[in-house]
Amino acid sequence: MKLSPQDIETAAKDLLAAEETGQQIGLLSLRHPGMTMDDAYAVQTALMQAKLAAGRRIIGWKIGLTSKAMQDALKIDTPDSGVLFDDMEFAPGGEIPAGRFIQPRIEAEIAFVMKADLPPAGVTRETVLAATDFVCPSIEILDTRILRADPDTGRSRIITDTISDNAANAGIVLGAARHDPARVDLRWTGAIVSRNGEVEETGLGAGVLNDPVAGIVWLANRMGQYGQTIRAGEVVLSGSFVRPVECPPGSRIEADFGAFGAVSIAFA
Questions:
Q1: Which residues pair with 195 in a beta bridge?
Q2: b/e burial code for range 48-74 (CB count within 10 A of at least 16 → b)
Q3: CA distance to 8, 19, 200, 244, per residue, from 194 (Å)
Q4: Does residue 155 lie within any of the structural domains?
Q5: Which DSSP symbol is given to 165?
Q6: 96-108 tens-digit pLDDT
Q7: Which range of residues forms the domain containing residue 227?
Q8: In this structure, what CATH number is given to the domain that contains residue 119?
Q9: How confident is the model at residue 228 (pLDDT cuts 50, 70, 90)?
């Protein structure tokens, strides 16, 4: 750990203020050169504790940076993760109010909804499948409370910035379809993502660590190292298999997963 407890607390408070005011903060990686991933997760935990103290409730978890393209872009070889809170879930087919987010983008993902707790260690593919109630199509809404790039140096965000910022998580939209993960080939489950009727991205579940279930395995075992567990009833976003799609005001998004279902959301 490079950051002091005061550094961690200050970073979390600054991120909360950015979310509340819509005014992004500068890169934490520039504020704290040498900041580690453990430091970043400590900031995320402080952020989580502040939200829980304010009355928020955890409804699940997200996995990010699972694709090779995104890992190569950030020069890392591991995914990251973040927390889903109850005020982040939006109804499918609904509309996000104007001003709710700063710079929203979306990704298409396969969501897992759990029916049993996962153990804190030794989680396998079979463990995840046995503990999953169903899988469904979903849209993750991303936002950034940290600048994407520093205006003076041009330096882009790095992994410690995104982890600190709750892995850039902002919202989830779950589709209505429900499937048994043991009866669907999730590697071949894909989506056509359109914005305002034009196709922007396409992809397959295999883009997520070659198997979306592998993302849940990774997350459960990583969380165990931090004293956390995935619990029954929680939603886990397994990671995006498309690049993020920008959502300026007026964007209408549809993710068509074919036989797996569909999910849509609009931005006022």
A1: 198, 253
A2: beebeeeeeeebbbbbbbbbeebbeee
A3: 39, 27, 5, 12
A4: yes
A5: T
A6: 999 999 999 999 9
A7: 57-267
A8: 3.90.850.10
A9: confident
| Residue 67 falls inside a structural domain | yes
Model confidence pLDDT, tens digit, residues 204-213: 999 988 999 9
How many residues does this entry show for the chain? Answer: 268
- β-bridge partners, 85: 58
Whether the predicted pLDDT of 248 surpasses 80: yes
Strand partners, 62: 82, 237
Predicted confidence band of residue 226 (pLDDT cuts 50, 70, 90): confident
In a domain, 246, yes or no: yes
* Residue given tokens 């995840």 in the structure block: 128
* DSSP state string for 61-93: EEEE--SHHHHHHHT-SS-EEEEEEGGGEE-TT
Place of tokens 């203020």: 17
Q: Given a cut of 90, is residue 71 above it in pLDDT? A: no
The CB density around residue 151, as the number of other CB atoms within 10 Å, is 8
Tell me which H or E stretch contains 142. strand 132-142
**CB distance 173 to 193 below 8 Å:** no
| Domain count of the fold of the chain | 1
